[in-house]
Amino acid sequence: MFDKVAGKEVTTPRQSIPEVTGDIAFQRLGLEAEDVLLDVGTGAGDKAIRAARICCRVIGIDINRKSLEIASKKALQEKLDNLIFASGSFQEPCRELDLAQYRITKILALYSLHHLPDQLKKKTLGTLAQLLHRPGRIVIGDLMFFQDPHKHRQQFDEIHYDGGDTDFPSRVEYLTECLDQFGAKVQVAQIHPLVGVIVADWV
User: What's the whole-number average pLDDT of the chain?
Assistant: First the structure.
């Protein structure tokens, strides 16, 4: 199912497209008090910290040690004791933690999956689906192509796309097909012709 949300759910016109995408992706997690969230590519931990105020446990993983240090300091300042930051990647999410023991019910991947080529994306989505406790949800907010990217070349900077040097966005159909193969019920929201939010549910 596809729907267009740009201009409908966006309430702050000065927000950038990546910021809007992050807010909509977070909303569509539908976090509840009993949820355990895995934030993949957590960066400085802003979404993880926001989530920790809602759900019982949050784990943020990232490959960048400096970002993890910043995130940990923020969590300490916020006096959050239900938040863990650890080194991990899409290919090795359990590098420092045995994530299977946490009974993860929600997973967020925000502006991070596009760094992987298609085959690695598919492998990663399969790994994340295996980590997810049922019922569970994965939300991806990222670069993904609804249209030919060359038609929107002038907006590459606006959406934080480098034109293919180190970014490898997939067509939205590829992502939804992968998730469908792993047994998910999938919904897609288009934020921009090259940016969207995917919600994948397992029951």
Answer: 93
Fold for the domain defined by 2-202: Rossmann fold (3.40.50)
What whole-number distance in Å separates Cα of residue 134 and Cα of residue 69?
31
SS3 173: helix
3-state secondary structure of 19: helix
Assign residue 117 a region (left: φ > 0; alpha: ψ between -120 and 50; beta: otherwise).
beta
Round to whole Å and give the CA distance between 48 and 84.
9
φ, ψ dihedrals at 186, nearest 5°: -115, 135
The answer to whether 145 and 191 are in contact (CB under 8 A) is no
**Strands 195-202 and 132-143, sheet pairing:** antiparallel
Greatest C-alpha distance within the chain: 47
143, β-bridge pairs: 195
Cα 101 to Cα 99: distance, rounded to the nearest angstrom = 5
Residues 149-197: pLDDT tens digits?
A: 999 999 999 999 999 999 999 999 999 999 999 999 999 999 999 999 9
User: What does 67-128 look like in DSSP terms, one character per residue?
Assistant: HHHHHHHHHHHTT-SSEEEEE--SS-TTSSS-GGGG-EEEEEEES-GGGS-HHHHHHHHHHH
